[in-house]
Amino acid sequence: TIVHCPLVATQRRRLSWVQLAGHKGSFKAGDEGSILKKFSENEKLCFERLREDTLHSFVPSYYGMVERDGELFLKMKDLLANFDLPNVMDCKMGVRTYLEEELVRARVKPKLREDLYNKMMEVDSEAPTAEEKKQQAVTKPRYMQWRESLSSTNTLGFRIEGIKRGETCNTDFKKTQSKEDVIQVFKDFVEGKKNIINSYITRLEDIKQALKASEFFKKHEVIGSSLLFIHDHKERAEVWLIDFGKTTPLPEGEKLDHYRPWEEGNREDGYLWGLDNLQQTLSLLAGE
Ligand code: ATP
Ligand code: MG
Ligand code: MG
Predict the structure, then answer these.
(1) CA 100 / ligand 3 centre spacing (Å)
(2) Sign of torsion, CA 99 29 236 175?
(3) 86 CB less than 6 Å from ligand 1?
(4) pLDDT tens readout for residues 93-106
(5) Element (H or E) spanning 4, and its range?
(6) pLDDT at 138
(7) What is the mean pLDDT of residues 211-219?
(8) Residues whose beta carbons lie less than 5 angstroms from ion ligand 3
(9) What is the pTM of this model?
(10) Is the complex ipTM higher than 0.95?
């Protein structure tokens, strides 16, 4: 499905803001250069800890909690504000997109979701099992695991969630899985421009070094977080870490290395393994 981004018009900088993932309505425009994301305690704690961490220069500046129309929001820098009609890509990192606790909850107390069953049917009417068809519902981890297995999450440790290019948004990458397909999507995204690819490669290496030095990163299971790629026709290109809604602290004294394969209980997320693969993918594209 290719849809026209609803917000492209005269006041183009302000109005060209785009949301490539998440529920419609979980974001609001803030004052000049800021946006508001629907409050979550967990994400708030992450932003507070990240302020003090080596990763802070790769995370949107956080301006605290605000209330709007009786609802709480986290106020942060709008990463698109300094670009002129940018192309934007949301790349969700890691080999797993749900928390271990969600898996446990679904086992102990399965909550059957008809909405997720319908989403599954839309993509592949053969995907639900006979029992799921009878129930007309699936659990959330089942849906998430199925999405992972279709996309490159399990095989490359990252997946493309959405892209805005020109005035068009595309979130139809659910079946983009092979390295070749991912390379092609990136190629279209950068419109073949080598300068942009090279800037992205440099920025990803800086991010990797910051991650390896980060106390925050060692001590958190980073699930469902994305790298947001942004560039415009002036060929400025940036990558930022966003979305800490499911980034969860480990018990005191425990650490992750973010490379080891995930087994239930070890809480590994495969973030660095995915980042290696992402860097390799861009290097292949740069060398073409
Ligand atoms: P989900 O968990 O489904 O991914 P979410 O509600 O947690 O969604 P985010 O992933 O944080 O929301 O953000 C959704 C989209 O909003 C991103 O893909 C990106 O397009 C945009 N976005 C988020 N944060 C920023 C930011 N600081 N600056 C500019 N754009 C942003
Ligand atoms: Mg997200
Ligand atoms: Mg999220």
Answers:
(1) 16
(2) positive
(3) no
(4) 999 999 999 999 99
(5) strand 2-4
(6) 96
(7) 98
(8) 243, 245
(9) 0.94
(10) yes
Percent of the chain at pLDDT above 70?
94
- For ligand 3, the distance from its centroid to the CA atom of residue 99, given in whole angstroms, is 12
* CA distances (Å), origin 143, targets 119, 136, 147, 152, 222: 9, 13, 6, 15, 19
CA-to-CA dists, residue 5 to 13, 17, 193, angstroms: 14, 9, 23
| Packing angle, helices 271-287 and 194-213, rounded to 10 | 160
pLDDT-based confidence at residue 23 (cuts at 50, 70, 90):
confident
**Nearest ligand for residue 5 CA:** 1
Measured distance CA(139)–CA(107) in Å, rounded: 9
**What's the pLDDT score for residue 288?**
85
Terminal CA-CA length for the chain: 29
In the structure encoding, which two tokens stand for residue 272, read together?
């660095």
C-alpha distance from residue 29 to each of 26, 48, 62 (Å): 11, 21, 14
Q: Max alpha carbon distance in the chain (Å)?
A: 54
Beta strands in 39-112 (DSSP E): 62-68, 71-77, 87-93
Distance CA 181, CA 264 (A): 29
As given in the structure block, the two tokens for residue 38 are: 């629907």
